[in-house]
Q: What sequence folds into this?
């Protein structure tokens, strides 16, 4: 079984992935942030490094999905391959931070790759307002995220909503996380109850 968690930067994906994997004894697959050779450069000069970063993520997540399906394990994944293609890359293109030539090349590559993979059995979308995202980004204190602009987060949120509203690839569960703290047992318990209902419906 393949569960995936989607959501904007700072929405709580990694925290929830960790907690649900522990509770359900699922194997977690995290976004490769620490070993990403382009991330720091990207936040310093988005226009120069946007295409390189997106291709790196595309390759990394494609390999992840292939590994997930081959393993036969119950796996929970932090962020999906679809978010790069439907949210981050188009947003960079619309902000003139990725050229049309690079964007079209990227989308062509994504379309080819996506024809070889299956979507997750359950997608959990974490919906958060910009103030919530900013609070959580600041609290985790990653130095390369200090320069993220509010308008960038707002545009990403709009793209997330458009993508989720049209999502038809599989089962979808939406969690409004503005007034939630996954580290609080009562909040985590609510999420676990909802996930249980969805997961039991997969069998």
A:
């Amino acid at each position: 079984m393949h569960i995936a968690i989607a959501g904007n930067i700072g929405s709580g994906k990694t925290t929830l992935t960790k907690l649900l994997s522990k509770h359900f004894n699922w194997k977690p697959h995290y976004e490769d942030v620490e070993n990403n050779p382009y991330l720091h450069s990207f936040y310093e000069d988005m226009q120069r490094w946007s295409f390189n970063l997106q291709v790196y993520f595309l390759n990394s997540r494609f390999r992840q999905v292939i590994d997930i399906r081959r393993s036969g394990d119950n796996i929970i994944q932090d962020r999906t391959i679809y978010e790069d293609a439907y949210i981050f890359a188009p947003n960079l293109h619309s902000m003139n931070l990725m050229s049309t030539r690079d964007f079209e090349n990227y989308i062509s590559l994504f379309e080819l790759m996506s024809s070889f993979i299956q979507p997750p059995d359950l997608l959990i979308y974490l919906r958060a307002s910009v103030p919530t995202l900013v609070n959580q980004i600041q609290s985790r204190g990653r130095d390369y995220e200090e320069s993220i602009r509010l308008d960038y987060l707002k545009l990403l949120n709009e793209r997330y909503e458009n993508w989720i509203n049209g999502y038809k690839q599989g089962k979808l569960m939406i969690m409004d996380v503005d007034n939630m703290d996954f580290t609080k047992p009562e909040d985590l318990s609510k999420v676990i109850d909802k996930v249980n209902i969805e997961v039991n419906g997969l069998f």
Q: What stands out?
A: Residues 46-71 form the longest helix (26 residues). The chain has a mean pLDDT of 90. The first strand starts at residue 2 and ends at 7. The beta strands are 2-7, 27-29, 75-78, 122-127, 171-176.
